[in-house]
Specification:
The chain is α+β, with helices and mostly antiparallel strands. The chain has one domain. It is built from 1 helix and 8 strands; from the N terminus they run αββββββββ. The protein has one helix at about 5-60; strands at about 65, 80-85, 95-105, 110-115, 115-120, 125-130, 145-155, 160-170. The strands form 2 sheets. It has a 5-stranded antiparallel beta sheet. Strand 4 and strand 5 form a beta hairpin. The longest helix has about 55 residues, at about 5-60.
């Protein structure tokens, strides 16, 4: 009965070590890829939920209001302030003003009503709003805004940026 030589054992252990190292590296790469995909999907889903919430509430708006610090006309590309009339699904009995804005320091899309601030979406690098009149042309006058196009640039911690867009018409708009 003949056993294994030292050389055969060294070769066998070396081949086993190479195989285990290769499998471990492949496993790490697979886990990192899965984590990146999960972060990307989470960021996109958060941005979609945020933009859906903004558009749902903007549909009820009766007027776009000027925002302090947004130039002479009061319109900024990264925020919008609107008046929601009574009879809305959020506060049925009372009208209210709501401000949707980008918080660049926290990378969030925020909703502000009175003194309350809600985070609608995270990982938001930029918010771009285009204000359109009834004919679909860009406008810089709050009273002329009939539609709003919103684009969110969302970037997960370890992924590429993605743009989520939507456009909404103000259903209850009152023409001055």
């Amino acid at each position: 009965m003949r056993g294994w030589s030292i050389l055969e054992l060294v070769v066998a252990l070396s081949l086993t070590t190479l195989a285990v190292t290769g499998v471990t590296g492949l496993l790490r790469l697979t886990m990192r890829s899965a984590q990146m995909i999960t972060h990307r999907l989470d960021a996109q889903q958060a941005a979609r939920r945020g933009i859906e919430r903004v558009t749902a509430e903007l549909r009820w708006a009766e007027a776009v209001l000027p925002v302090t610090g947004c130039g002479a006309a009061g319109l900024c590309a990264d925020r919008i302030r609107v008046r929601i009339p009574s009879g809305n699904p959020y506060r049925r009995d009372q009208p209210y003003d709501v401000l949707f804005q980008h918080n660049p320091r926290q990378r969030e899309l925020e909703r502000r009503v009175g003194g309350t601030t809600n985070n609608l979406a995270s990982w938001i690098d930029r918010v771009d709003m285009t204000f359109l009149d009834a004919g679909g042309a860009p406008t810089g006058v709050p009273a002329d805004v009939a539609r709003v196009r919103i684009a969110l640039l969302v970037t997960p911690p370890d992924g590429a940026p993605t743009v989520i867009e939507s456009e909404v018409g103000l259903r209850n708009r009152r023409v001055p």
